[in-house]
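User: Reviewer 2 asked us to show a designed sequence for the structure in our supplementary figure. I'm pasting the structure tokens here. Could you produce the per-position amino acids so we can include them in the response letter?
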């Protein structure tokens, strides 16, 4: 038999008066006051200090929520008052019963469990004004803001709600009205109906939502804002449809969060123009606008006698060689450089597609190879007047030319070499990605091509002061330059050549993307020129208000998104496939693009359609 028993006198809300509920507008919490009457085993009212233990149970006697221990609780003439808070999740409207355990304060004895369980009556459920299963009106006094856990569970809100915190469970109904503020935290669960306002967080678990302003999410069926005016400030995670017959300027969000999205589409004849804020640019590689429009330089290395440059297929790994100096490598697209090898008269470098295998040639010296992106080098071949070297994509097939000597090829990454062709004033050689098709030029001689990895050669075109030659990945599209002459291109592996550009120039280097569509050429004491149509037309791209740059060489990444150009007794310059910082991107009528902000001032196209131009 229990030594104690209890009966319920009164249960009231936490902020209510002792004997009566008040109408004062306090924000409700899940705590409530409990007053009981404790009798001893003889039936007489108890007196003294006791330890009281409380557990909340459901109709099937399963415990709900935490176990509360209040000690000491003073009992006078059998009466006691204490405060209980099992949390909002425990009081969700379903029947609840209180189990009470009691022992003398300070005792180590087990608690005597009082019987029967005490039902939790209606007054604590006044708390459910903040966790209502249905709320028909507006909540405008932020009374939900401080106690957001009350939104957990299956709740329906039909009026405007202001709330912050972490959400779980199922929330359904209509969320609308001006007083909806910010839903922040890690949102999860099921949202049905229409939600307005701003929802921040990772949105984990959200399905079938039609929300117009979720950070990092544009809904599958977005609501498009129609722009008929000539100018519009864009909001994050919003879609815009321009309809004006004149070009519409839409200004990108000035302070986007990481992952912010936006869409723009042009139905009007004038198309659209995305204007960037200070420090912002748009990556344009997959919009058909490759590198070459805008250039930056790294002054950390200072002015050096740069002689040769090469790039991996993705432009991440780069290598540059200095005449009577060192080799330098970069693993961050030319942002930073590391000195490699020893100081020699380096004249040419080549790279495998992944940038792991490198080859370099020394004028009146040896050929060197590296299998660790330039960290270590091994001497190969003999001491000759090496002038140019080329590599297959996997780095196993190499080809090199000797000025006033022969062509040499290797099929084992430079370990062994075989003499090819005739002795000529060779100056440049290029290779297809498989190393099968080769093209080489000799100064004041002809262009020569091979379709069998250099075993046999065929002379092409005419005698010219050839300087440099480059090849597409398949060896079909070729481009060559001659000093104080023209640019020449071929679309049939060198069988026929067409003169390009509008003037003769002191060309010193040329490069080509893997698809052969994008080409770039540099002229000593002149500009950088690029072509985006396989060499048919050429445009000056870089002059820094002066034509006196001593350009020596240039390299294209295979994917066309990165360029590296070098001056002799000057600097290294990088160009990425992007608009200029603070520039703009334009789309003609019926063009559309979806952008995502990836940090560092960069917007990345996620999807696109149509024709674009950048600046």
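Assistant: Here is a per-position design you can include in the supplement:
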């Amino acid at each position: 038999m229990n030594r104690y028993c209890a009966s319920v006198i009164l249960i009231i809300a936490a902020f209510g008066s002792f004997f009566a509920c008040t109408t004062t507008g306090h924000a409700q919490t899940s705590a409530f006051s409990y007053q009981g009457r404790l009798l001893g085993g003889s039936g007489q009212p108890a007196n003294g200090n006791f330890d009281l233990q409380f557990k909340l149970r459901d109709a099937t006697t399963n415990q709900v929520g935490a176990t509360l221990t209040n000690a000491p609780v003073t009992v006078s003439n059998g009466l006691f008052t204490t405060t209980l808070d099992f949390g909002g999740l425990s009081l969700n409207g379903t029947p609840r019963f209180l189990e009470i355990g009691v022992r003398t304060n300070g005792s180590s004895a087990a608690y005597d469990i009082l019987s029967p369980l005490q039902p939790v009556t209606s007054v604590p459920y006044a708390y459910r004004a903040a966790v209502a299963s249905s709320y028909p009106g507006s909540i405008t006094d932020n009374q939900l803001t401080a106690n957001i856990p009350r939104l957990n569970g299956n709740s329906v809100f039909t009026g405007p709600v202001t709330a912050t915190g972490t959400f779980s469970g199922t929330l359904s109904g209509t969320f609308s009205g001006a007083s909806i503020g910010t839903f922040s935290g890690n949102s999860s669960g099921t949202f049905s109906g229409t939600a307005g306002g701003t929802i921040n967080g990772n949105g984990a678990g959200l399905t079938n939502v039609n929300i117009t302003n979720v950070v990092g999410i544009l809904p599958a069926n977005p609501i498009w804002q129609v722009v008929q005016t000539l100018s519009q400030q864009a909001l994050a995670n919003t879609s815009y449809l321009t309809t004006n017959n004149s070009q519409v300027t839409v200004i990108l969000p000035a302070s986007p969060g990481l992952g912010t999205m936006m869409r723009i589409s042009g139905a009007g004849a004038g198309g659209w123009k995305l204007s960037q804020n200070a420090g912002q640019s748009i990556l344009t590689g997959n919009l058909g606008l490759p590198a070459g429009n805008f250039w930056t330089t790294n002054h950390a290395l200072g002015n050096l006698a740069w002689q040769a440059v090469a790039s991996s297929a993705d432009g991440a790994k780069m290598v540059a060689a200095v005449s009577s100096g060192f080799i330098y490598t970069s693993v961050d697209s030319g942002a930073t450089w590391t000195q490699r090898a020893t100081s020699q008269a380096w004249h040419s470098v080549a790279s495998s597609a992944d940038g792991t295998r490198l080859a370099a040639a020394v004028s009146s010296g040896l050929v060197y190879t590296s299998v660790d992106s330039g960290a270590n080098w091994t001497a190969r071949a003999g001491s000759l007047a090496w002038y140019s070297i080329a590599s297959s994509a996997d780095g196993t097939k190499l080809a090199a030319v000797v000025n006033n000597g022969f062509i040499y090829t290797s099929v084992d990454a430079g370990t062994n070499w075989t003499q090819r062709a005739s002795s000529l004033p060779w100056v440049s050689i290029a290779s297809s990605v498989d190393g099968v098709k080769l093209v080489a030029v000799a100064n004041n001689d002809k262009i020569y091509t091979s379709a069998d990895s250099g075993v046999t050669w065929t002379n092409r075109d005419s005698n010219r002061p050839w300087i440099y030659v480059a090849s597409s990945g398949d060896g079909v599209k070729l481009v060559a330059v001659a000093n104080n002459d023209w640019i020449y291109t071929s679309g049939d592996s060198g069988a026929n050549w067409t003169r390009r550009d509008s003037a003769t120039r002191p060309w010193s280097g040329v490069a080509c993307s893997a698809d052969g569509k994008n080409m770039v050429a540099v002229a000593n004491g002149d500009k950088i020129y690029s072509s985006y149509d396989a060499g048919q037309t050429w445009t000056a791209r870089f002059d820094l208000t002066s034509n006196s740059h001593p350009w020596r060489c240039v390299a294209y990444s295979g994917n066309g998104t990165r360029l590296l150009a070098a001056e002799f007794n000057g600097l290294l310059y990088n160009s990425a496939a992007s608009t200029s910082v603070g520039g703009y991107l334009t789309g003609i009528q019926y063009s559309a693009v979806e952008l995502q902000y990836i940090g560092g001032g960069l917007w990345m196209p996620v999807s696109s359609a149509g024709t674009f131009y950048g600046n």
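For the response letter, you might also mention the following. The first strand starts at residue 5 and ends at 13. Residues 5-27, 125-218 have pLDDT under 50 and may be disordered.
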